[in-house]
Design brief:
Radius of gyration: 29 Å
Structural class: mainly alpha
Strand content: 5-15%
Distance between the termini: 69 Å
Shape: rod-shaped
Helix content: 40-55%
Order of helices and strands: HHEEHHH
Largest sheet: 2 strands, antiparallel
Number of helices: 5
Number of domains: 1
Strand order of the largest sheet: 1-2
Bound molecules: heme C
Number of strands: 2
């Protein structure tokens, strides 16, 4: 009868257990990676849905479906016999900071009222007639911002 080599057996067992654990860890990390990515895609889709259809007028109507800006209105205004060509145009909002984003959208933040010089006839006319007030929750704001700033990555 062959003598059982306990030392060899223990060595083999340790190796097998090692393989087993590393396999579990590998699959575990793959799975975690997946759910991590998934939650970002969910937030992206949610933000996209809100951008197109918030409670109120759609953002894309004034900012364009690509959020890169568009001309909303242009008109001529005459003041003191002087002609002013006024254009209301939105800018690209896919690369703004979260602070700037919130300044325009967080209902809790009040925008400071600017003062206009005599030459800023158009700015004065257009001021206040631009962004509607939305009542978006912090979670909704975060998702819209995530969508806007990750558009190039996902689409
Ligand atoms: C009725 C038109 C209109 C709608 C609807 C609208 N916006 Fe705006 N928005 C403007 C105008 C006009 C400005 C000021 C011009 C600019 O800065 O681009 C502006 C400014 C902004 C800014 C600041 C840009 C900057 O550079 O400071 C952000 C961010 C923004 N809008 C996001 C949104 C989001 C998100 C929505 C939807 C929830 C939305 N807007 C809906 C017209 C609109």
């Amino acid at each position: 009868m062959r003598k059982l080599n306990i030392k060899k057996l223990i060595g083999k067992l340790t190796l097998m257990i090692g393989y087993f654990i590393s396999t579990i860890l590998l699959f575990g990390s793959l799975f975690a990676q997946n759910t991590f990515e998934d939650s970002f895609i969910t937030q992206y889709e949610y933000g996209k849905m809100l951008y197109q259809n918030p409670r109120g007028i759609s953002c894309s109507e004034c900012h364009g479906s690509d959020a890169k800006g568009k001309t909303i209105v242009s008109f001529t205004h005459i003041k003191n016999k002087k002609k002013f060509n006024c254009i209301l145009r939105t800018k690209d909002i896919t690369n703004i900071t979260y602070e700037k984003f919130l300044q325009n959208l967080d209902p809790k933040l009040e925008k400071p009222t600017p003062t206009f010089t005599k030459e800023q006839v158009c700015e004065k006319l257009l001021f206040g007639n631009t962004m509607p007030t939305y009542f978006l929750t912090p979670e909704e704001l975060k998702s819209i911002f995530f969508y806007l700033t990750n558009k190039d990555k996902y689409e």
